[in-house]
Design a protein that fits this description.
Blueprint lengths: L1 H28 L5 E4 L3 E8 L11 H21 L7 H24 L2 E7 L9 H19 L7 H19 L9 H8 L1
Length: 193
């Protein structure tokens, strides 16, 4: 329980960092020139993103609100199912960062109908993003690398148990069909003797 309280505090801090950065960007950069951090490489500039990451699904704000909410619920459900033990600590932390990233952008969509983006890698012309996007992207990459190099298939058995319960319930419903009670001819012969 103490671990979950610590994770909840981390979750709130991460959302606070994201929202504070967006508040600052709106106050300082909206309708102003970009702030150059490293000339030709990194800039901070204000952008209202009405789509998802990298501007995909632009203008689909209502869909993205609902989708973000369901992603949040799914990740939260999976977080609560992660087993106890040191081996899974990093997995839980990654889940907290992903949850914070999803909520950080969801807050923008709910209150502004767009997401505030501001970090621009000019050197490679990378799409403008924000801190919540960073949480999501970096942690997704880390999760992928951990799944390949650190965790074994058996370490994810808890996921199979979650989804097999659903499959077992479905197959149990199919197995409970009424049996065929017709008498076979061999049984009739035995009963007559």
């Amino acid at each position: 329980m103490k671990e979950r309280i610590k994770h909840f505090i981390l979750f709130i801090i991460l959302i606070g960092i994201d929202q504070a950065s967006k508040f600052w960007v709106k106050a300082v950069l909206m309708n102003n020139d970009p702030i150059v951090i490293i000339p030709g490489v990194l800039e901070l500039q204000y952008l209202e993103n009405q789509g998802a990451v990298w501007g995909i699904l632009s203008g689909k704000v209502d869909f993205l609100k609902v989708f973000s909410f369901f992603v949040f619920l799914l990740i939260l459900f999976l977080y609560l199912k992660i087993p106890q033990g040191k081996k899974y600590n990093v997995l839980k932390i990654i889940a907290v960062f992903i949850l914070a990233g999803a909520v950080g952008n969801l807050i923008d969509r709910l209150y502004l109908n767009y997401v505030v983006d501001f970090i621009y890698f000019k050197l490679i012309n990378f799409p403008i993003f924000n801190i919540a996007d960073s949480y999501l992207t970096v942690c997704s990459i880390l999760l992928f690398l951990l799944a390949i190099f650190y965790y074994k298939d058996d370490d994810f058995a808890f996921l199979e148990q979650i989804f097999n319960k659903k499959n077992q319930a479905t197959s149990a419903g199919q197995e409970s069909k009424p049996e065929d009670n017709t008498t076979k001819p061999a049984d009739d012969h035995k009963s007559n003797s």
